[in-house]
Amino acid sequence: MKEQFVNVVKGEVKDIAACSDEIFAQKALGDGVLIVPQDNIIVSPCDGEIVSVFPTKHAISILSETGVEILIHIGIDTVELEGKGFEQLVENNTKVSKSEPIMKVDFDLVREKGYDPATMMIFTSNPEIQKSNLNQIANKYITVVETI
Length: 148
Hints:
Organism: Holdemanella biformis
Mean pLDDT: 86
Keywords: Kinase, Phosphotransferase system, Sugar transport, Transferase, Transport
Domain PTS EIIA type-1: 21-125
Number of domains: 1
Main location: cytoplasm
Distance between the termini: 7 Å
Strand order of the largest sheet: 2-3-11-7-6-5-9
CATH superfamily: Glucose Permease (Domain IIA)
CATH architecture: Distorted Sandwich
Order of helices and strands: EEHEEEEEEEEHEEEE
Number of helices: 2
CATH class: Mainly Beta
Low-confidence stretches: 132-140
GO molecular function: kinase activity
Radius of gyration: 14 Å
Shape: globular
């Protein structure tokens, strides 16, 4: 089954292997994409439920309505910011719609503090990802994922 996910932030989309953090680059948490953000609003990639917003707000776990688990990781080592620069827009265990804003991030602050703002959208339930199907549609990038 093919399923489309909206990328979680507007920006330049790259293969996750380009990530400066080896854990992500080696796909230890799953495959996905890296996005160099050009906006400060993180959106839900799908219709689903917020499983967990980490206490430091740098990571969000979502379960799609079809059972695909997605981890949104905002920035590299931004856990060290302890939530500064992050405004949580949703609570745990709430339903969300595709493209619904879920976090506001002050990426200028992230950069000022010396952190890489690269944002990862990782499919932790490990569906087969067809990255060749990255399409630009109306200034939004869409990732098409084939679930096994």
